[in-house]
Each structure stands twice: as structure tokens, then as C-alpha cells.
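thought: fold this chain, then report.
action: predict
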Amino acid sequence: QVQLVESGGGLVQPGGSLILSCAASGTIFSIYDMGWYRQAPGKQRELVATITTGGITNYADVVKGRFTISRDNARNTVYLQMNTLKPEDTAVYYCNADVSSGTYYSRVRAHYWGQGTQVTVSS
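observation:
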């Protein structure tokens, strides 16, 4: 009933920048918190940043000052602006959204995940 479609990943040199986008679609009533997570090979998925409906943000310490999360509620979209990228930022990045969706008589609130987009930082 809800899909999150990500875009913007790719290969970038250290010190470079990328912006990721994630658009939600489906029978959406409301979207609450949204966030970005990442997972490197052989590692656990970790939180990168979150943003509330009202725009309150939270960042992992390792990305503070370099990454910026934002959202466009009218477009049901969350963004991640990534600056001063480092090789250790290399991972598959996933968006997540807390969504109320479904029919008027059968509504569900749940977290949904995007398919992931690869970010590779390498010289």
C-alpha cells in the first residue's frame, strides 16, 4: 500500500557531494517521522538522520555538520544532502517513513523502507 522510491546515489570522490531523494506514494493519509539509514557490507544497518513532520532533525555524530536532512511534505519526499563525503560513508542508503495508510475503514500505521541506493566514495 506504500512505496518509497529512492534516487541520487552514485560514485563520488572524497570531499564531494551527493543528494539523495526518497518519494513516498500510495494510499497515504499522513507521514510522520522520516529518516535515512545506511548499511555497509558485513555491517549492521545504522541510523544516519531523522526528521519529524515539523522539521526537527537528529543526526548520527559521524555525519553532523556534513549531512543535512530535509523534507517536502507536499511532495511526500525526504532528502539527504551529503557534503564532504568520506570513504567510510560508502554504503547502501535506505529511507524510512512512519506512514498512516490504507482505506478509510482499514487504516494501518507502519514503517516502510525504500529499496536502497548505493553511495560509493572512492578516489
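thought: worth noting. The mean pLDDT is 96.
final: C-alpha cells above.
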